[in-house]
Amino acid sequence: MQFGLFQQQTQSLVMTQELRQAIHLLQYSATELSTFIQEQALENPLIEVKESQKLEETSYSSFRNVSEDQTSPIDYAHIDRTSLSDFLLNQLQDLRVSKKDRKNITYFIYSLREDGYLSRPFEEICEELQISQREGENLLETLQHFDPAGVGARNLQECLLLQLQRMDDPHYIAEQIVMFHMEAFATRKWKEISQQLNIQLAEVQEVNDLIKKLDPRPGTQYMSEPVQFVQPEIRIVPYEGDLLVHIEDDLIPSVGLNHHYEELLRSADDDEASQYAKQKIQQVQWLMKSIQQRKQTIVKVGEAIARHQKDYFLKKDGVLKPLTLKEIADEIEVHESTVSRATTNKYADTPRGIIELKSLFTSAVQNGLGESTSSRSIKEWMKELIAAENKQKPLSDAKIVSWLQSEKGTTVSRRAIAKYRDELGIPSSSKRKRY
Q: Are residues 251 and 338 in the same domain?
């Protein structure tokens, strides 16, 4: 081993603060970026934020075409934030029970998951309350009579049964199937059920249709997750046989330098204040530059996507072409990760409606002639074909393969069709059959 001083040239990527901020801003949606700008303005007095006048003027005027003295239903719109536990406790207040039972039922309420099921074993809750399981059953039964129907269930079977028992028109066969034949019913052993209950297959199918209308997670309607509103950041507009891409600048407040504070800090005699001013001015400049880079990147990506998917946007029967992140990245000379960040949680207002940019990328399926079709197009064809099929003789995967080959000129394996069905949430032909 030799010791000494040697000179060596190497290359390395240094992640500067400016670059890190630009990357973060690119992956933000318009709403997230607006929030980030407001937070930065609170920390940096030299940031001057101006809200878009267009946004303020069209905050809800675009939803109605009425005079100022008229009332719109939008004025009264609100989002219900009542949690499941609050909703159940309000019902408990109107119930005439002993103080002890009220306390124990409250404990059961707080032992529910957000979907309405018990979060822990029933026996464990009874043990914690120091009551017998018989007392616990009575308390739980009281809770299970609350709205929504099915709340307080220990499992899916009990949840469905509670909802069936609360129906105005009781369905005896459905209750029997859920109570005693749930496993066979779930695995579609309908012939076995029809023989055991001495009923027609069509009656089992009626039960299936009825159970599909029930809510397997009755508490989810009271989940406190906020509603997410989609704001398209770019517009893809047809123009003289081509497509134009515009970015909606008005969705994001404009950022500038507050010159009043800048002068005050620059004129201060204190070196520390002067250094502070320089630092804050640099932060404003970084922020402004990062926002501008973000805008330019999104527009570049949007224009490249529009060029590739031109037929899809302009033709009524147009389909998505196979497109990958790498193709767009190579075309506009950026990294794949940049394209990924520029399309995630970014929406475009297009002739086809509001679409997430990410969804315009789709994998390719090669046919026998070496031509490619997007997997998304194949899924759309499958959905249309299955929707129009004879439900008494549903199409098998093999028949879908044959149809795609003869009608669309696309060769797809049966395994791929099964995979696409699963992704679309479409059951197999045997499970789609109607009697």
A: yes
